[in-house]
């Protein structure tokens, strides 16, 4: 056993897992660019208060799941548990609102949460997040959900998109009251955590995973029945846009999300295979203002890269690998050929070993070469290469000049 192990919940990503990781990341990033999102690189560390103020003091994330520490001057800092809080902080600090009527940003990177590690869940995990600041138009909500749908389609992942509206400052208080009253009646069926939530944050009881709680809230009042006129119109318009865009979705009246800052539209993509949430987002129309910026409606979502990677079945075909094997005193010519191949954009490996042809071909197989390029004294003298297809066994000789004309 190795002397050192990685920290629990922190893991190395490499090989096939990394290929899937990059495939997910590249697919999402290229799509975000088509929707005119601009990248921003945000720090991994923020002042603790940034998360306390935005995510909410009584959320699981802030109370139990953050990596919090003091720096040498005694200031409280935290590793970011999610990306939106930092994006909002950056939007305000850099006065991005002064630049454009609305701002579309995306970021990618590690997030940290002190949770119990399980399949696809790590304490350091990676997200790509997208945020749109400055518009309340339900078209944007529809577009965000359309992007989620496109990401899933492009990656060949079957998932159900769930949507809900959780109202605004005007309509949510009366719903919270109605829900609290209802929960009072079923109090005997609630788990300890929900007994605590019932008064502080009753909405969270709706998405408790404990069976008795799930059963207890089945008849609970629904937020959609309490929406004010503005929220109701927003929600209905969003649904009509999703229909126009032919985006399949399911209304989940218990979808509330675990963070305090959401308003109106919330949505999630839930894997049909594993039942876990792989993309999640929503509107947060007051957060910029609550964090000291100008009143700015906003909406965002985050893609869990590890979680989606677990569901990716097929990767696109890799570029074929060429393995160049020089024999005898041909290294000078081999270097020329290798350079030419790489200039042509080919993926090239070299044999660093001196061995006979049989051993070299075995090595090429181990390295999963698709072609071997054999270079001997004859090839060097005649300015040719011998190229062998490792899948079919077909072998042919071509001139360096032909190679230069990109015959491959
Ligand atoms: Zn409302
Ligand atoms: Zn519960």
UniProtKB/TrEMBL annotation:
Aminoacyl-transfer RNA synthetases class-II family profile domain: from which residue to which, for each copy?
1-326
The UniProt entry, under InterPro entries, shows: aa-tRNA-synth_II (IPR006195), aa-tRNA-synth_II/BPL/LPL (IPR045864), Anticodon-bd (IPR004154), Anticodon-bd_dom_sf (IPR036621), His-tRNA-ligase (IPR015807), HisRS-like_core (IPR041715), HisRS/HisZ (IPR004516), HisRS_anticodon (IPR033656)
Known SUPFAM superfamilies for this protein?
Answer: Class II aaRS ABD-related (SSF52954), Class II aaRS and biotin synthetases (SSF55681)
Keywords tagged on the record? Aminoacyl-tRNA synthetase, ATP-binding, Cytoplasm, Ligase, Nucleotide-binding, Protein biosynthesis
Q: Localized where?
A: Cytoplasm
Cite the EC number. Answer: 6.1.1.21
Which BP terms in the Gene Ontology apply to this protein?
histidyl-tRNA aminoacylation
Task: Detail which positions bind L-histidine.
Answer: 82-84, 113, 127, 131, 257, 261-262
Signal peptide region: none
How it assembles, according to the record, is:
Homodimer.
**Known NCBIfam families for this protein?**
hisS
Name of this chain's protein: Histidine--tRNA ligase
